[in-house]
């Protein structure tokens, strides 16, 4: 893809994605997941969602790539007893399932807006990316959000965007719950993100 990967953009010293671009990219990824989970006769589980496997085209539209370890779930089955290699930090504990993809998606959502990898050296067995974000909400949100993202907003815009960022990080925390039953379905994730985008566009138009 002409604009490389989401990982490249998140950690580039020369380029930076603004808030609307990041929201748009995560909506694109959610649409791809919705198709994988519900657009086939059998559920397809990607098993390796992470920023390096999200590629951006010339219009900055995101595409999910690398299906080398994807799994198909037989009809009426929600999970399979198998192990997957995946990428450390994004793999959900337990069986391979669509909720495992939601966990990976949630980690990527948190990473996209904090610019912290789940494998960052600041995290350990005692605290992971999700716990770090959850314990910082809502009062310390400006301390955990990607600093380059904050620098792109002026003061008034950033105050108005506080609720947007809070909603996004709370959604990421929901997606990365330890119990699969507590994670949102991708259709609900997509609906929430579209509402967040509309709220942001309304703020921008004021």
Keywords:
206 residues, mainly alpha, Transferase(Phosphotransferase), domain 1, two-stranded antiparallel ribbon
Model regions low in confidence, pLDDT < 50 over at least 5 residues: none
Report the CATH topology name.
Answer: Transferase(Phosphotransferase), domain 1
Beta percentage is 5-15%
The total count of helices amounts to 8
Give the spatial strand order of the biggest sheet.
Answer: 1-4
Order of helices and strands: HHEEEEEEHHHHHH
CATH architecture: Orthogonal Bundle
Helix-strand blueprint:
Layout: H1 6-10, H2 19-38, E1 43-45, E2 54-56, E3 62-64, E4 71-73, E5 79-80, E6 96-97, H3 98-114, H4 129-136, H5 141-144, H6 147-151, H7 155-175, H8 186-205
Antiparallel strand pairs: 1-4, 2-3, 5-6
Structural overview:
By secondary structure, the chain is mainly alpha-helical. It has one domain (6-74, 84-205): Orthogonal Bundle (Transferase(Phosphotransferase), domain 1), CATH 1.10.510. The protein has helices at residues 6-10, 19-38, 98-114, 129-136, 141-144, 147-151, 155-175, 186-205, and strands at residues 43-45, 54-56, 62-64, 71-73, 79-80, 96-97. The strands form 3 sheets. It has a two-stranded antiparallel sheet with strand order 1-4. Strands 2-3 form a two-stranded antiparallel ribbon. Strands 5-6 form a two-stranded antiparallel ribbon. A hairpin with a 5-residue loop joins β2 (54-56) and β3 (62-64). α3 runs antiparallel to α7 (155-175), α4 crosses α7 (155-175) and α7 (155-175) runs antiparallel to α8. The chain is globular, with a radius of gyration of 16 Å. The N and C termini lie far apart (35 Å).
């Amino acid at each position: 893809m002409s604009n490389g990967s989401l990982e490249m953009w998140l950690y580039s010293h020369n380029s930076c994605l603004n808030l609307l671009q990041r929201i748009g990219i995560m909506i694109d990824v959610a649409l791809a997941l919705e198709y994988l989970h519900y657009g086939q006769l059998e559920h397809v589980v990607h098993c390796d969602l992470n920023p390096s496997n999200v590629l951006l085209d010339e219009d900055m539209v995101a595409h999910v790539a690398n299906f080398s370890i994807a799994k198909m779930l037989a009809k009426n089955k929600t999970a399979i007893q198998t192990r997957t290699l995946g990428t450390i930090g994004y793999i959900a504990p337990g069986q391979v399932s669509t909720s495992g993809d939601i966990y990976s998606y949630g980690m990527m959502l948190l990473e996209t807006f904090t610019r912290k990898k789940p494998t960052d050296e600041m995290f350990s067995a005692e605290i992971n990316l999700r716990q770090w974000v959850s314990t910082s909400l809502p009062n310390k949100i400006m301390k955990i959000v990607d600093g380059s993202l904050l620098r792109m907003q002026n003061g008034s815009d950033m105050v108005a965007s506080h609720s947007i960022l809070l909603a996004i990080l709370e959604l990421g925390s929901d997606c990365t719950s330890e119990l699969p039953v507590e994670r949102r379905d991708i259709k609900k994730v997509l609906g929430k993100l579209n509402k967040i985008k509309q709220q942001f566009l309304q703020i921008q138009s004021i």
